[in-house]
Write a sequence for this structure.
């Protein structure tokens, strides 16, 4: 391993487990070899709403190697059904197509799958309702939006302001459902040892998963251990445990052997979460000089009938720009669809697509440069709370990005701009993401040989968290990084929050620093820290990361194909912990944003109630060939009011704003404004006479 | 996946014998890039797989007349990388490289590529009705016709089926007037590639005119002519690893500003690689101008019957024909 000179934080050191991952020796949950293991395969409902009348397992059970066929009629009972999706095989009610209604446990995966196809499930079928509309009769105001924001807010009288302003922009923007599609599927291996259970699981937080699964199974938490040493991506879909984990435990209990369960790619389009489709009406009222007087952002989205998940899509509009009056609302329809969940930057990602598209349209209406429009509406304090910003680098990002991108002299008028048979345009949009922390714990142990072991139930889902925590600990201990070993990914380690909300580094880093400080202050061989009090008592500030994304697009005039030859992101995120892994997070997020803009869309068939394009050939994630020159840089930002590292989270901000930047550039190139994603070729072709 | 027996044939006669012995549920296995997927999905449930990748049909031979004989077991990646193919039949190399991914092309065979099945999402989901899948009409009818058919056919479809053929390579071969050599119980025969695949009609489960057990051994491609320029162009929703929205294989021979000869085939518009004979007829002898190209496209697309959700394909196909021919003609676009 490289020995980085102190300070380690900021250095672009390689991932500590990089070699194991690249050579294939890093073990993921499903890969763990274990004696006597059996395999489970699920049977999914083929109706979107109704009840299971009966299950005929005879053909499946007749297959050699089948150990059990489990369903509501015979599966072990769980203790707690509050988390409906986790209480797998406990009900005859079918709430969406693709729901797990039975499972086969067999000697091999192949036999389990074949037998699953032989299980006959009879249903009483009810009519289903799976299509979100802005006038859907089931729309209602949920009590709060994810994770605990107010559903609606109002300041001043936006309707009166809109009626009085010189310029009004009023448009509706739509985003389709998106599926997270991490490379590694949701997978679990459950091993019982008497009354003790260990689940090797692919998740974003072993400690949180333990709490939830223990509650579902009625196990004391100390009898359950969750191990998630390596996780092949999650993008939010592994933030909460998935039915696979509970199913593995129930199946292992039923057959008295360890059981492995992994969702197939197709199953990942049903019961492992996705981003809700959104319908967003944006109204912006501005003076002729482009000063915002009113902002109204009204969101319509969906959840399933079994769980209220209300994405916080308009929350970002509450703080982004100055305006004397504003309203934000969220309305939810509970449909017979799979349960939506977190996907990279829930809220900010779809919300900023709409807001930043609308700002671009307003800039054109005002005859202004879109950067100048944003600078003109820069707030001095958080418009929602009145709080001071701990730091706000938005304008700095816009200015630096404009300089690097070569924005100066850009003709702001809309296209078409035809060069040969290619329309060419450029666009900009802003990024933002909250900088939060969650309480947690960590311990550090010193050895006489000068080495240290840090323990914390954090998770590295591919972000580089293990490496960064090592760097943070090394600096806090004033030790070289190769003398510090950080153990993560196990619920037996000191409790830590999950890898979500871009809070990992800030939350876990705080606990690690405090434990290391205690060790150095008090001496001895071991120290422990709990950050609950520190985080509860932190000074009130409006804490957010910011960014600006610039892109150039080429649109083929004949085929409508869009390419993005240049995509530049400039970010203000406090102090960067590791220049290499940070760049990966930024360009990964931007790539996912590009993919959202141009490629990704989960297509619902309303007659059947499921997503049709349920594989990676049909659900188009951007390929390498789509991702040309993607560059991410960051500006120096010191912020002492965040956490001991001075760091803001960076896992999600990269996806925020990208889609708007691309849609804005497509408009600049072609004159065609796309207000519902993705921007597919057929949207942009004109009859060529 | 149903349990199956794996057999490996060493020559064509052996393959035929193995397949014959195994009965109707046996299938030939090439690279397996489509068949194995369909087996995992339960769409194909063979009891026996007869691996034909070890047959001695793994070479690309130059024929005395300048044509090519391409063994059915040649991998797609080898075909695309072959020097003669790249120089003399650039549209064929381009078409192969436009398909699938590097890993898939390393596995997929020329014979298998021709025999691959539609990627219609209803066809690949055994929990949904489909007329094409079961070898018999589904009482519920074709769900794509009234459902999501953005990627489906605009030409030659039937009430029973609106699926498209997914191959890129086959589109180039249709333009090249390639011929398939097959061998079967009743001996060897040749089948021209426009003609190998069939329109869905009332029997959409029959993709080709081949009889059960017939095995493709080679594809013969006649020479294209030295003065001919050719290209394959594919429009898709991402830059790689996506099936075409519309594709075109075109060859053009222009002398003194006039189209002496031309070949045009379209992909992703029909149940077959679609040879655009009407367009070709309309173009031969005409000046090589955008106007002629547009008129040729219109002559072909007059027979299009787009569905409510794929009307864009007519426009896209027209644009693509005009643009590709204009580029080949070197005319101002």
């Amino acid at each position: 391993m490289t020995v980085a000179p102190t300070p380690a934080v900021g250095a672009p050191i390689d991932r500590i487990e990089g070699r194991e991952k690249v050579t294939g020796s890093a073990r993921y949950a499903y890969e763990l070899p274990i004696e006597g293991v059996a395999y489970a395969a699920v049977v999914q409902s083929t109706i979107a709403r109704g009840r299971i009348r009966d299950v005929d397992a005879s053909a499946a059970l007749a297959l050699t190697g089948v150990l059990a066929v489990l369903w509501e009629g015979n599966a072990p009972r769980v203790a707690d059904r509050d988390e409906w999706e986790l209480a797998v095989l406990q009900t005859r009610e079918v709430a969406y197509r693709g729901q797990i209604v039975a499972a086969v446990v067999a000697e091999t995966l192949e036999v389990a799958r074949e037998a699953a196809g032989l299980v006959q499930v009879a249903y009483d079928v009810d009519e289903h309702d799976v299509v979100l509309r802005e006038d859907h009769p089931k729309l209602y105001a949920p009590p709060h939006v994810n994770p605990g924001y107010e559903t609606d807010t109002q300041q001043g009288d936006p309707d009166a302001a809109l009626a009085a302003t010189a310029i009004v922009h009023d448009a509706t923007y739509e985003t389709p459902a998106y599926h997270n599609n991490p490379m590694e599927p949701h997978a679990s291996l459950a091993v019982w040892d008497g009354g003790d259970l260990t689940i090797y699981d692919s998740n974003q937080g072993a400690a949180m998963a333990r709490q939830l699964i223990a509650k579902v199974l009625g196990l004391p938490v100390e009898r359950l251990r969750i191990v998630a040493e390596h996780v092949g991506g999650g993008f939010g879909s592994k933030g909460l445990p998935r039915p696979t984990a509970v199913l593995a435990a129930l199946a292992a209990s039923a057959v008295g052997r360890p059981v492995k369960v992994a969702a197939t790619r197709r199953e990942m389009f049903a019961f492992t979460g996705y981003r809700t489709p959104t319908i967003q009406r944006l109204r912006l009222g501005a003076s002729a000089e482009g000063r915002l007087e009113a902002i109204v952002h009204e969101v319509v989205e969906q959840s399933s009938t079994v769980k209220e998940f209300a994405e916080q899509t308009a929350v970002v509009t509450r703080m982004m720009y100055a305006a004397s009056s504003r309203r934000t609302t969220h309305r939810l329809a509970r449909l017979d669809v799979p349960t939506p969940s977190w996907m990279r930057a829930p809220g900010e990602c779809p919300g900023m697509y709409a807001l930043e598209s609308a700002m671009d349209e307003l800039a054109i209406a005002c005859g202004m440069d879109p950067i100048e429009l944003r600078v003109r509406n820069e707030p001095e304090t958080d418009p929602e709370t009145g709080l001071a910003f701990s730091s706000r680098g938005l304008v700095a990002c816009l200015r630096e990005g404009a300089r690097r991108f070569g924005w100066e002299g850009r003709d702001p008028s809309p296209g078409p701009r035809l060069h040969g048979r290619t329309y060419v345009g450029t666009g900009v949009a802003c990024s933002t993401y909250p900088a939060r922390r969650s309480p947690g714990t960590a311990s550090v142990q010193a050895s006489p040989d000068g080495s240290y072991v840090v323990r914390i139930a954090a998770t590295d889902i591919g972000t580089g968290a293990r490496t960064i925590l090592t760097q943070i600990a090394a600096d806090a201990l004033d030790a070289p990084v190769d003398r510090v070993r950080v153990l993560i990914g196990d619920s037996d380690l000191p409790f830590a929050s999950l890898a979500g909300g871009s809070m990992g580094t800030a939350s876990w880093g705080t606990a690690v620093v405090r434990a290391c400080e205690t060790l150095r202050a008090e001496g001895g061989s071991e120290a422990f820290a709990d950050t609950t009090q520190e985080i509860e008592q932190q000074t009130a500030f409006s804490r957010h990361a910011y960014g600006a994304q610039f892109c150039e697009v080429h649109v083929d005039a004949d085929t409508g194909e869009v390419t993005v030859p240049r995509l530049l992101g400039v970010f203000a995120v406090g102090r960067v912990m590791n220049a290499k892994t940070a760049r990966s997070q930024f360009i990964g997020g931007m790539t996912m944003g590009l993919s959202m803009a141009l490629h990704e869309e989960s297509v619902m068939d309303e007659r059947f109630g499921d997503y049709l394009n349920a594989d990676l050939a049909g659900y188009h994630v951007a390929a390498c060939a789509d991702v040309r020159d993607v560059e991410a840089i960051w500006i120096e930002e010191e912020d002492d009011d965040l956490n001991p590292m001075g760091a803001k989270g960076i896992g999600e901000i990269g996806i925020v704003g990208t889609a708007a930047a691309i849609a804005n550039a497509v408009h600049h190139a072609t004159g065609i404004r796309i207000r519902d994603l993705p921007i597919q070729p057929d949207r942009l072709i004109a009859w060529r006479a | 996946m149903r349990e199956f027996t794996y057999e490996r044939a060493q020559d064509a006669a052996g393959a035929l014998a193995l397949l014959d012995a195994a009965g109707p549920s046996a299938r030939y296995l090439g690279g397996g890039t489509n068949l194995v997927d369909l087996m995992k999905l339960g769409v194909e449930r063979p009891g026996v797989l007869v691996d034909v990748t070890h047959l001695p049909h793994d070479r690309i031979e130059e024929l005395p007349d300048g044509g090519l004989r391409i063994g059915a077991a040649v991998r797609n990646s080898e075909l695309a990388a072959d020097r003669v193919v790249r120089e003399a039949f650039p549209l064929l190399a381009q078409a192969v490289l436009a398909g699938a991914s590097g890993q898939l092309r390393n596995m997929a065979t020329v014979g298998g590529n021709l025999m691959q099945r539609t990627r219609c999402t209803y066809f690949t989901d055994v929990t949904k009705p489909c007329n094409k899948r079961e070898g018999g009409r589904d009482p519920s009818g074709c769900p794509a016709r009234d459902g999501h058919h953005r990627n489906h056919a605009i030409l030659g479809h039937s009430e029973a089926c609106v699926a498209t053929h997914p191959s890129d390579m086959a589109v180039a071969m249709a333009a090249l007037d390639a011929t398939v050599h097959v061998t079967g119980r009743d001996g060897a025969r040749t089948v021209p590639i426009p003609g190998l695949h069939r329109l869905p009609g009332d029997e959409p489960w029959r993709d080709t005119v081949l009889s059960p057990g017939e095995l493709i051994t080679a594809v013969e491609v006649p020479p294209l002519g030295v003065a001919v320029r050719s290209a394959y162009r594919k429009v898709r929703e991402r830059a790689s690893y996506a099936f075409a929205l519309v594709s075109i294989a075109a060859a053009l021979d222009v002398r003194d500003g006039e189209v002496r000869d031309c070949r045009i085939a379209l992909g992703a518009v029909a149940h077959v690689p679609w040879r655009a004979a009407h367009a070709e007829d309309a173009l031969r002898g005409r000046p090589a101008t955008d106007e002629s190209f547009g008129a040729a496209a219109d002559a072909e697309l007059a027979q299009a019957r787009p569905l409510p959700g794929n009307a864009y394909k007519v426009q896209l196909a027209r644009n693509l024909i005009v643009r590709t021919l204009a580029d080949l003609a070197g005319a101002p676009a």
In short: The interface with chain A takes residues 1-3, 40, 42, 119, 121-122, 125-128, 143, 147-148, 235-243, 245, 294, 312, 315-316, 318-320, 322-323, 333 of chain B (CB under 8 Å). The domain at 5-51 of chain B is CATH 3.30.43.10 (Uridine Diphospho-n-acetylenolpyruvylglucosamine Reductase; domain 2).
